[in-house]
Design a protein that fits this description.
heterodimer, A: alpha+beta, four-stranded antiparallel beta sheet, 8 strands, B: mainly alpha, Ferritin, two-stranded antiparallel sheet
């Protein structure tokens, strides 16, 4: 077995100020700081990131709606157990997009299972297929002071966007000149 | 619920268009098929960095170098998205990488061919990334959530890969006779390996029926290959290049371009490890793994000293 594994960190990206953080995938890293750097390299090669969060996978309590209904996952915490802030994420509906669960708010709870129980009572569960909760103290967030070095460079690299290469008009022109256009190609981009 | 009831509920969910997510019940064969497909796909992205990577230092202009660097970086990123998606099924990245380095894992055989001229870089973008997009656009509708999401992200980025390749080849076809010849030579060498990317014919593809039943794929290998051929023949004819297939003809009744037979002996030979560059590709990955060992050790020591990791 080689030694390239390390712990997994779940990565949440925020496209713009005010948008919810959404799970983009995960990275492996030897610590949270490196996880944030790896998350930048893996998920932010294009100009669509305002902030990143990373959370150790082991700190995420995840249940699908099927597991919530099926499994015996809840044990009530002691009445005097200290509460802390948990972040709550959910996947609502079946959106065809590149991200998974998104941030919906926070709850105060004593254990992960307790946090999920409170989340189920706090946030509308209709049409939710997946719930994640994680204690906020385990979340490392990118800082606004680092935004210029972390996210600005991708913004200048227009050549990473397919719109930088106007090949469709050239192809249409070539096909038109040779009488090769069919109807679908006359009106739409054929990529 | 009995196993049969669970299977029925699972198939009903897929029929409703629901994604299956990590933690949901799934048949073991579904899990195993996905691990096989996603890990091969991840390896293909990682190995796919190599044929283009050798041209980074020889790019003809700074602009072309920046573009190629961005493309190769994307492929490294795509490999990571896909290893992540496979990990949600219970396999570890270390296990997958071990299987690749030990020669037990498969990856797309197209990357076992050499890149001989700069025109190959443009042709790979247009043809090989074009074929990948054809396949991945379908997989973006896959019933397994993590794979579908990785595909949505990858397709958006690969559209850039394809278009930068088209831009280069279009320029060559409008350039000097020698440049046009370079583009034609590149097409001659990459056409057939690209058609092979879609895999064996449906009749000899053992996994297809089950993959389609469970919504992992929605089209067969031959259907995808036909869509690809139709699109590419029209595009290459438009730029004045010749498809290197003397048997190719247009079938007016179906509206399809029908290609000649793929050399399946070559296909299986390359898949089984005896292509022009198989040994070189694996050797490069093994060296990268060994040469990076000190970095991983240093990071682990740093994390340990700080009480993390």
């Amino acid at each position: 077995m080689n030694d390239s594994q390390w712990a997994r960190y779940e990565v949440f990206e925020q496209e713009r100020a005010g948008a919810p953080h959404r799970n983009a995938g995960s990275v492996h890293a030897s610590d949270a700081e490196m996880a944030l750097g790896n998350a930048r390299d893996v998920f932010v090669r294009r100009p669509n990131c305002f902030s990143l969060w990373v959370v150790p996978e082991a700190a995420v309590f995840a249940k699908t709606a099927q597991e919530v209904a099926r499994d015996d996952w809840y044990a009530a915490p002691a009445a005097d157990a200290p509460r802390e802030t948990y972040l709550v994420f959910s996947k609502k509906g079946q959106p065809a997009r590149e991200t998974f669960v998104e941030y919906v708010g926070e709850v105060q709870a004593a254990t992960p299972a307790h946090a999920l129980r409170v989340a189920l009572e706090t946030f509308p569960p209709q049409d939710v297929f997946v719930w994640w909760v994680a204690p906020e103290r385990r979340v490392l967030k990118s800082e606004q002071a680092d935004a210029a070095s972390m996210f600005a460079p991708a913004r200048a690299k227009k050549y990473r966007m397919h719109t930088f290469y106007p090949v469709e008009p050239i192809m249409r022109e070539l096909k038109s000149a040779q009488g090769m256009l069919d109807n679908s190609e006359k009106t739409t981009d054929n990529d | 619920m009995t196993e049969t009831e669970q299977l029925q509920a699972f198939e009903a969910r897929i029929a409703r268009g629901e994604k299956i997510e990590p933690g949901d019940w799934m048949p073991d064969a579904y899990r195993q098929q996905l691990i096989r497909m996603i890990s091969q796909h991840a390896h293909s992205e990682i190995i796919g960095m190599l044929p283009e990577g050798v041209w980074l230092q020889r790019a003809p202009t700074l602009r072309r170098k920046l573009v190629l660097l961005a493309k190769v970086q994307d492929e490294g990123g795509h490999g990571q998205y896909l290893y992540h998606a496979a990990e949600t099924l219970g396999v570890t990245r270390a296990e997958m990488i071990d299987a690749l380095l030990a020669g037990r894992a498969k990856y797309s055989s197209v990357f076992n061919y050499p890149t001989l001229t700069w025109a190959d870089i443009g042709m790979i973008g247009w043809l090989v990334d074009g074929a990948a997009i054809q396949n991945q656009t379908m997989l973006a509708h896959c019933s397994y959530g993590p794979y579908a999401r990785a595909m949505v992200r990858i397709c958006a980025e690969e559209t850039f890969h394809k278009k930068q390749g088209m831009e280069q080849i279009i320029r060559y076809t409008r350039g000097t006779p020698r440049q046009k010849q370079m583009a034609q030579d590149a097409l001659n060498r990459w056409w057939w390996p690209s058609l092979m990317m879609f895999g064996p014919h449906d009749a000899t593809s053992p996994n297809s029926a089950q993959l389609i039943r469970w919504g992992i794929k929605t089209k067969t290998n031959d259907e995808l290959r036909q869509d690809f051929v139709n699109k590419m023949v029209s595009d290459f004819h438009a730029v004045g290049l010749t498809i290197p297939d003397p048997d190719l003809y247009y079938d007016a009744s179906s509206g399809n371009w029908i290609s000649g037979e793929i050399n399946w002996d070559e296909f299986w030979r390359v898949v089984k490890g005896d292509g022009p560059c198989n040994a070189e590709r694996l050797q490069a990955r093994r060296e990268a793994q060994e040469n990076g060992a000190w970095v991983r050790e240093a990071l682990a020591a740093y994390a340990a000293a700080r009480g993390e990791g």
